[in-house]
């Protein structure tokens, strides 16, 4: 229903909008029609006017020629003219004198067309044959009056000629003619025709010669030639030929711009002149009509505009009045509905179960209260109607005002407060408030809900929610903690798995690495027992056993070193050393005659020996270089191994470069971890425990440097490590090259070997074989102390550490008590840094670890005995 109404309204309002263009179109059409009618009437009037003008001019011309012809006819009958005597000349002169305002010459011609006489007298003209002129020819042939076209007269000006024949006794004896300059005649009759601003008036001969034309130079020319640019001229001439008078409209082309054509109106009138006719042609342009019409048009526009405005205003007012009436009807209808709904409202209000008030928003007075309100508050409805809101509400009057304003201006219709009942109790209330209009006044319709119970329920709910929330937070924290611990466990598990995997691989490798040399040692040692073994083979087997032993020793040293590093037992023992010397020793150790001949090597030690004295831990540096150079050689089958150092920013930068198999980029960091090897399967090509780089890294960092590498697979590797360049005052330190082998002692010396193992004792005995020493053996610490006490000639003790009854540490301490200056070299299979330190702490002067290197052993013995 509503939709239909809405559509109708929309249609009506649309119609209103349509009215304006439709009215405009209608006005325009009416205007155009009226204007068109007026225009065509005006043109007709114009044409009529032109024709009247032309007719008047024509009559004038007709009369003119009639007069002149009758005068000439009259003259031609004079005997003097017929016979052509001297009196003729006088007659002609008299005639001329009386007509000279129009006529320029009077001429007598003979029957052959020769000028007999002309007045005013013109010697050159007299005697001239003018029979070639058309009109002359016509008069000679027809012997009737002839009016010529415009022609160039013998007198030298454009003229027309009127010839009348002269007869003598009905025999043709020539003609009498007058010359009339065309200018004068045209101006006389046509000049007065008031053609419009852009119009022209012509006088045309039968052949279309312009007898008169106001345009200079046209007179005497054919109109076809002067308007040759315009296609419409022949049509006009054709029309003139067929009709005596008429009007028409042509599209006239401009002479200079043929594309520009304008409408041209014309009127013509033919003048019958004896044997011929002339035509008066008058033209005018359409714009001339417009000029005449423009005032009328402007007036019409003005009148129509006024009419349009008046009509628009009328319709506008009509619409407005209709709207007003409609609005008024609506308003009345609404008032009726309102009244009904007010009544309905009052009934609902009074009987409603909810507590309700009507409040005056300005005074805050309770205007009305229902029965439920009376029941709730304890006051009667009448009492309540005398009260203000503030008497019930515990809020201040300012706060009440603020609440009421929020209802009025901010569309807020719900707020909470506390109301006091008649019995003095205070209740929590929720007020729903809206503005309504009753009896043309704004009042606030308020519904009061008692929410005291709900509030207390909410409070306890909130308390519980808070508790749950705090528990939730705790639970979340516990969850997070638990999460952190699964994470830790996962990492630990992964680490354990990784280390388990590494350990398995390590054990696998170590087993292989230990068993291989052991196999050689055990096997070849057994073969050496054969008494028939040729000496060369025996030597070869011995070499193999030594080589395998060295290999085994290196593995064991590595394992002990890494264990010591991880236990935090490794200590830095700084001494002053010559790094050139250490490099040379490594070089000599690795690059011997037996080294792979396909690998070249080069050592670079750029510092002079004095500058190469630095303070660092020589054992660790040697170990690092041994590992790195050993790896370079191990992984290079062909090419080169170069090593050395450079001095950079107070650091010694060592490099070990090889052209070997190289290391993939993803393994560059990995290989520094213990047991990590590029090849991890059992089908390994190269041996090794995977500990060398881990040890080297730990040592380099202990010494204050760092280690890194550059490497590409199949291209080779360069390992770099740095050490602080700590120099010492060279004078303070004796220059004692490490490899300088002291000269052997000459006097026989007494050496006590404290050693419980027979094999070891025998080996030591063998090492002393070519040295001038007396050897005494003690099989435990107790015996060693006793021997020392009873033998003051003992020069040196080789003290085993692990011995029954009393170990080497204790024995050393005891001996040092009574022989503080006696040299004691600890010789032990406990080879760690800690063992070494302990030995020095007990009083040992040096330390040699098992198994012994013979050369090292001898140099240490010499060192001690020569002191
Ligand atoms: P090992 O040589 O006993 O296996 P390292 O800790 O010395 O143990 O080296 C770890 C691994 O790093 C080697 O197994 C090898 O895969 C790789 N590596 C070390 N040095 C080189 C080198 N110069 N060229 C190629 N690979 C090397």
Automatic annotation (TrEMBL):
<dbReference type="InterPro" id="IPR011006">
    <property type="entry name" value="CheY-like_superfamily"/>
</dbReference>
<feature type="modified residue" description="4-aspartylphosphate">
    <location>
        <position position="800"/>
    </location>
</feature>
<keyword id="KW-0902">Two-component regulatory system</keyword>
<feature type="domain" description="PAS">
    <location>
        <begin position="341"/>
        <end position="384"/>
    </location>
</feature>
<keyword id="KW-0812">Transmembrane</keyword>
<dbReference type="Pfam" id="PF00072">
    <property type="entry name" value="Response_reg"/>
</dbReference>
<feature type="transmembrane region" description="Helical">
    <location>
        <begin position="171"/>
        <end position="190"/>
    </location>
</feature>
<dbReference type="InterPro" id="IPR036097">
    <property type="entry name" value="HisK_dim/P_sf"/>
</dbReference>
<dbReference type="InterPro" id="IPR005467">
    <property type="entry name" value="His_kinase_dom"/>
</dbReference>
<dbReference type="InterPro" id="IPR001789">
    <property type="entry name" value="Sig_transdc_resp-reg_receiver"/>
</dbReference>
<dbReference type="InterPro" id="IPR003661">
    <property type="entry name" value="HisK_dim/P_dom"/>
</dbReference>
<keyword id="KW-1133">Transmembrane helix</keyword>
<dbReference type="Pfam" id="PF13426">
    <property type="entry name" value="PAS_9"/>
</dbReference>
<dbReference type="InterPro" id="IPR004358">
    <property type="entry name" value="Sig_transdc_His_kin-like_C"/>
</dbReference>
<keyword id="KW-0067">ATP-binding</keyword>
<dbReference type="InterPro" id="IPR036890">
    <property type="entry name" value="HATPase_C_sf"/>
</dbReference>
<dbReference type="GO" id="GO:0009927">
    <property type="term" value="F:histidine phosphotransfer kinase activity"/>
</dbReference>
<feature type="domain" description="Response regulatory">
    <location>
        <begin position="750"/>
        <end position="865"/>
    </location>
</feature>
<keyword id="KW-0808">Transferase</keyword>
<dbReference type="InterPro" id="IPR000014">
    <property type="entry name" value="PAS"/>
</dbReference>
<dbReference type="GO" id="GO:0000155">
    <property type="term" value="F:phosphorelay sensor kinase activity"/>
</dbReference>
<dbReference type="Pfam" id="PF02518">
    <property type="entry name" value="HATPase_c"/>
</dbReference>
<protein>
    <recommendedName>
        <fullName>histidine kinase</fullName>
        <ecNumber>2.7.13.3</ecNumber>
    </recommendedName>
</protein>
<feature type="transmembrane region" description="Helical">
    <location>
        <begin position="17"/>
        <end position="35"/>
    </location>
</feature>
<dbReference type="InterPro" id="IPR033479">
    <property type="entry name" value="dCache_1"/>
</dbReference>
<dbReference type="GO" id="GO:0005524">
    <property type="term" value="F:ATP binding"/>
</dbReference>
<feature type="transmembrane region" description="Helical">
    <location>
        <begin position="300"/>
        <end position="318"/>
    </location>
</feature>
<dbReference type="Pfam" id="PF02743">
    <property type="entry name" value="dCache_1"/>
</dbReference>
<feature type="domain" description="Histidine kinase">
    <location>
        <begin position="509"/>
        <end position="727"/>
    </location>
</feature>
<keyword id="KW-0175">Coiled coil</keyword>
<feature type="coiled-coil region">
    <location>
        <begin position="454"/>
        <end position="499"/>
    </location>
</feature>
<dbReference type="InterPro" id="IPR003594">
    <property type="entry name" value="HATPase_dom"/>
</dbReference>
<dbReference type="InterPro" id="IPR035965">
    <property type="entry name" value="PAS-like_dom_sf"/>
</dbReference>
<keyword id="KW-0472">Membrane</keyword>
<keyword id="KW-0597">Phosphoprotein</keyword>
<dbReference type="Pfam" id="PF00512">
    <property type="entry name" value="HisKA"/>
</dbReference>
<keyword id="KW-0547">Nucleotide-binding</keyword>
<keyword id="KW-0418">Kinase</keyword>
<dbReference type="GO" id="GO:0005886">
    <property type="term" value="C:plasma membrane"/>
</dbReference>
<keyword id="KW-1003">Cell membrane</keyword>
């Amino acid at each position: 229903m509503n939709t239909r109404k809405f559509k109708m309204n929309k249609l009506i309002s649309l119609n209103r909008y349509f009215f304006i263009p439709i009215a405009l179109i209608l006005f325009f059409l009416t205007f155009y029609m009226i204007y068109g009618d007026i225009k065509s009437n005006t043109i007709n009037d114009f044409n009529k006017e032109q024709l009247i003008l032309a007719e008047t001019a024509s009559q004038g011309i007709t009369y003119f020629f009639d007069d002149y012809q009758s005068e000439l006819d009259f003259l031609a009958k004079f005997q003097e003219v017929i016979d052509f005597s001297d009196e003729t000349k006088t007659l002609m002169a008299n005639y001329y004198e009386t007509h000279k305002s129009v006529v320029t010459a009077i001429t007598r011609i003979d029957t052959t067309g020769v000028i007999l006489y002309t007045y005013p007298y013109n010697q050159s003209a007299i005697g001239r044959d003018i029979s070639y002129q058309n009109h002359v020819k016509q008069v000679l042939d027809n012997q009737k009056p002839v009016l010529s076209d415009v022609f160039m007269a013998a007198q030298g000006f454009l003229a027309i000629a009127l010839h009348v024949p002269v007869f003598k006794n009905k025999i043709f004896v020539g003609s009498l003619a007058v010359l009339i300059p065309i200018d004068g005649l045209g101006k006389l009759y046509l000049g007065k025709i008031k053609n419009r601003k852009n119009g022209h008036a012509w006088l045309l001969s039968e052949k279309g010669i312009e007898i008169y034309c106001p345009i200079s130079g046209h007179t005497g020319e054919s109109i076809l030639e002067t308007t040759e640019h315009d296609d419409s001229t022949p049509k006009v001439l054709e029309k003139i030929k067929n009709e005596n008078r008429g009007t028409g409209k042509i599209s006239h082309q401009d002479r200079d711009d043929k594309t520009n054509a304008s409408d041209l109106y014309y009127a013509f009138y033919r003048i019958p002149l004896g044997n011929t006719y002339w035509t008066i042609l008058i033209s005018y342009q359409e714009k001339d009509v417009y000029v005449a019409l423009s005032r009328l048009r402007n007036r019409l526009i003005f009148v129509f505009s006024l009419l349009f405005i008046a009509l628009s205003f009328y319709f506008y007012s009509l619409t407005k009045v209709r709207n007003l009436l409609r609005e008024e009807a609506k308003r009345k209808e609404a008032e009726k509905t309102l009244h009904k709904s007010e009544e309905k409202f009052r009934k609902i209000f009074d009987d409603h179960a909810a507590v309700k008030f009507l409040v005056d928003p300005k005074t805050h007075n309770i205007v009305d209260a229902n029965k439920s309100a009376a029941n709730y508050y304890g006051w009667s409805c009448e009492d309540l109607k005398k009260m203000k809101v503030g008497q019930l509400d515990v809020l201040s009057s300012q706060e009440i005002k603020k609440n009421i304003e929020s209802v009025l201006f901010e569309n807020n219709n719900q707020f909470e407060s506390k109301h006091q009942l008649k019995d003095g109790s205070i209740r929590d209330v929720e007020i729903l408030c809206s503005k309504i209009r009753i009896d043309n006044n704004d009042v606030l319709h308020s519904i009061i809900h008692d929410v005291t119970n709900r509030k207390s329920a909410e409070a306890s709910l909130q308390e519980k929610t808070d508790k749950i929330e705090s528990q939730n937070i705790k639970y979340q924290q516990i969850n997070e903690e638990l999460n952190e611990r699964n994470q830790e466990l996962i990492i630990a598990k992964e680490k354990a798995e990784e280390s388990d995997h590494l350990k398995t691989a390590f054990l696998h490798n170590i087993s292989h690495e230990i068993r291989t040399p052991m196999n050689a040692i055990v096997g070849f040692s057994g073969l050496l027992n054969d008494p028939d073994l040729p000496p060369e083979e025996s030597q070869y087997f011995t070499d193999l056993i030594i080589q395998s032993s060295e290999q085994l020793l290196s593995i064991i040293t590595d394992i002990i070193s890494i264990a010591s590093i991880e236990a935090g037992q490794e200590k830095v023992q700084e001494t002053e050393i010559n790094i050139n010397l250490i490099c040379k020793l490594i070089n000599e150790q690795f690059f011997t005659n037996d080294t792979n001949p396909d690998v070249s090597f080069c050592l670079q030690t750029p510092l002079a020996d004095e500058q190469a004295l630095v303070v660092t831990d020589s054992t660790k540096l040697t170990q690092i270089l041994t590992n790195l150079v050993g790896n370079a050689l191990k992984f290079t089958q062909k090419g080169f191994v170069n090593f050395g150092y450079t001095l950079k920013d107070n650091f010694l930068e060592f490099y070990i470069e090889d052209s070997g198999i190289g290391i993939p980029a993803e393994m560059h960091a990995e290989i520094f971890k213990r047991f990590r090897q590029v090849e991890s399967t059992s089908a390994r090509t190269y041996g090794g425990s995977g500990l060398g780089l881990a040890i080297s890294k730990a040592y380099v960092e202990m010494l204050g440097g760092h280690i890194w590498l550059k490497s590409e697979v199949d291209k080779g590797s360069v390992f770099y490590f740095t050490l602080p360049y700590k120099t010492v005052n060279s004078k303070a330190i004796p220059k004692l090259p490490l490899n300088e082998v002291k000269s052997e002692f000459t006097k026989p010396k007494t050496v006590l070997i404290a050693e419980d193992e027979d094999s070891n004792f025998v080996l030591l005995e063998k090492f002393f074989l070519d040295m001038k020493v007396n050897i005494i053996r003690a099989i435990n610490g107790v015996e060693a102390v006793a021997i020392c006490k009873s033998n003051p000639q003992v020069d040196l003790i080789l003290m085993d550490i692990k011995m029954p009854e009393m170990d080497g540490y204790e024995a050393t301490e005891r001996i040092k008590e009574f022989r503080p200056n006696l040299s004691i070299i600890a010789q032990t299979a406990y080879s760690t840094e800690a063992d070494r330190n302990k030995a020095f702490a007990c009083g040992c002067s040096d330390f040699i670890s098992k198994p012994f290197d013979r050369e090292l052993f001898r140099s240490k013995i010499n060192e001690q005995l020569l002191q």
